[in-house]
Amino acid sequence: xxxxxxxxxxxxxxxxxxxxxxxxxxxxxxxxxxxxxxxxxxxxxxxxxxxxxxxxxxxxxxxxxxxxxxxxxxxxxx
Length: 78
Ligand code: SF4
Ligand code: SF4
Description:
- This protein has strands spanning 13-17, 37-43, 46-51, 71-75.
- By secondary structure, the protein is mainly beta.
- A two-stranded antiparallel ribbon has the order 1-4. The protein has a two-stranded antiparallel sheet with strand order 2-3.
- Strand 2 (37-43) and strand 3 form a beta hairpin.
- Bound molecules: iron/sulfur cluster (SF4) (2 copies).
- Residues 22-28, 49, 65-66, 68, 70 line the site of one iron/sulfur cluster (SF4).
């Protein structure tokens, strides 16, 4: 018997992350309820937060915490 496929609901907004703006300060880490912001990677000697996108629910709670505006949002396409 076939199992009905139910499309997962998608959030109205999608989080965007501009790694070039990230200075690895870590101020966003505690704002994420799913611990999607964890760890640092180094790019050109500069620390960058690691975003685990599989754990991100696009709640946008992290967005106002970034002093360098590394986060942004866009409307999720319907
Ligand atoms: S949008 Fe929400 S779930 Fe995604 S990284 Fe930011 S705080 Fe975490
Ligand atoms: S608050 Fe902004 S600059 Fe700091 S680690 Fe998070 S994304 Fe990077």
